[in-house]
Amino acid sequence: xxxxxxxxxxxxxxxxxxLVDASDEESAVDTLKEKNLTIISLNKESExxxxxxxxxxxxxxxxxxxxxxxxxxxxxxxxxxxVQAMKILVDQTENVKFKMVLSEITDDIDEGAQFSAAxxxxxxxxxxxxxxxxxxxxxxxxxxEVLNYLADELEKDYDMQSKIKxxxxxxxxxxxxMTVVGVVMxxxxxxxxxxxxxxxxxxxxxxxxxxxxxxxxxxxxxxxVVAGVIGGIxxxxxxxxxxxxxxxxxxxxxxxxxxxxxxxxxxLVRFTRSLQTLIIGxxxxxxxxxxxxxxxxxxxxxxxxLKSKHEVEDGNSISGAFQDNKNVPNMVPQxxxxxxxTxxxxEVLKRITEFYTREIDNTVANLMTLMEPLIMIIMGxxxxxxxxxxxxxxxxxxxxY
Length: 401
Known about the structure:
Order of helices and strands: EEHEHHHHHHHHHHHHHH
CATH class of the largest domain: Mainly Alpha
Shape: extended
Number of strands: 3
Strand order of the largest sheet: 2-1-3
Radius of gyration: 29 Å
CATH superfamily of the largest domain: Type II secretion system (T2SS), domain F
Distance between the termini: 72 Å
CATH architecture of the largest domain: Up-down Bundle
Largest sheet: 3 strands, antiparallel
Structural class: mainly alpha
């Protein structure tokens, strides 16, 4: 597959330009003709080498959306027309997949579509949250301010996720390395050592017998272990797509020791930050809650937020559904109630977001401090068990001689 840059006349005989993804030039021409475009020029922009790997590597990341929002805000505030600003960003964007998406959105705008409507046609890239905030900016005539604010909020969410992922990389890497080394030892090294022990006729201690049994199983049925790991990953992904099993997994996450409270704070921050952004953007409370229920990414909290949405539609307080819920600290509904009564709900949500963001930062910092000694202890126990299982029978053999 390749990316072609084109310039063409549309049905209104207006000159437009953009990008099209096609296997060759002839296919690109056919695609443009299907759109009722008269081609002026067509040039190959880049190539995918036929394997599809570049599109996998060019996955659209949250940082791409942050950069896009920030740059578009600057261009619009400098009185650059929206279509022209989008064309500039298409040329500047290095991510091939994102470049294609922006090019298609630019074409839609050029043909008369609203910016928010064009974004809504790409739900896999631009969420309802993003689209509705942009729509509020269009309605109020403050698109540049809304985009800049949206970039700030997306950046904060991106930074929070980056900190958490960064904190998890080290322990996950060490544990994976330990697992690989352990499997290699059990499959290739341990059998050679234990064969000598078994031939000596010495009564082997229980740890050694267990080690030999595990080693024999891995050597004979390694394919079963690999199949089990792959099956577990596939099964986990399938379970996350099923509403019932996803709710169970989401509940388990909230009940995990140490990590449970951390994830609880993450979901609360997503809720309060997203709701505050939508309220400031002028989206009504009921619609905002419906959008946030999808943004929060946890079934337990999504159900709670939707319950609150129904309460609001029935004329009740937004904080009512959060009262006495064990997954929500008492402070949250109490402060939200105060915000509703004073008409400063957005300000209260901002304060709650700041508080729980600090809690997340402190928890992540503490986790990073605790992880190193904890990993060392786990490594020590693993090495100790393996050494004991091998050294103990050797010591008994030496005593026999």
